[in-house]
């Protein structure tokens, strides 16, 4: 007899939880930090979107990517598939397009279930995370110019409140606090780690 899954994803329940992004728990609950970030970028904010694919395996995972070392910005960092929105695009359209371009995930495969709260990065991107369910089997064809490696992170680890570590480090003359998620090969931090903190809170039902 096979073991019962540690966590089961219910699409309808997840849609209900994500129905109002403004009411969801978020990593930065106050706007002061975002205003400070806008000031540091000269007031320029670029709309962007990422796809947050929850892989519907017996033990569910979330799909992440290691960005190519060839990229000019954020090279070698862990991220979700995504990028800046083109004129006239919705966050959902941009996230699906970028995922197809970056990892070869056909845009018909992810089942969109909602959004997480938008997050403003220190580089001036206002990122909307678009959550989707992804059912195996599926094939990925990463673009080597953009993605070094796609990999999956267990939801069981994501749901452990003790898993992420809060760290402090000086960056460009300022002390910054940020999350780091444990992984045996990759350093998961920054905006991606913050989105994972919010995703974990939503999946645990915090704020219901």
Give a written overview of the molecule.
With 208 residues, this protein is an alpha+beta fold. The chain has a single domain, classed as Alpha-Beta Complex (Nucleoside Triphosphate Pyrophosphohydrolase). Helix content is 23%, strand content 31%. It has 5 helices and 11 strands; from the N terminus they run ααββββαββββαβββα. It has helices at 11-17, 32-40, 91-103, 155-158, 190-203, and strands spanning 46-55, 61-67, 78-79, 82-84, 111-115, 119-120, 125-134, 147-154, 165-171, 174-181, 188-189. The N and C termini lie far apart (35 Å). Residues 12-39 have a biased composition (Basic and acidic residues). Belongs to the Nudix hydrolase family. PCD1 subfamily. Residues 1-40 are annotated as: Disordered.
Summed up:
The protein is of the alpha+beta class and about 210 residues long. The protein contains 5 helices and 11 strands; from the N terminus they run ααββββαββββαβββα.
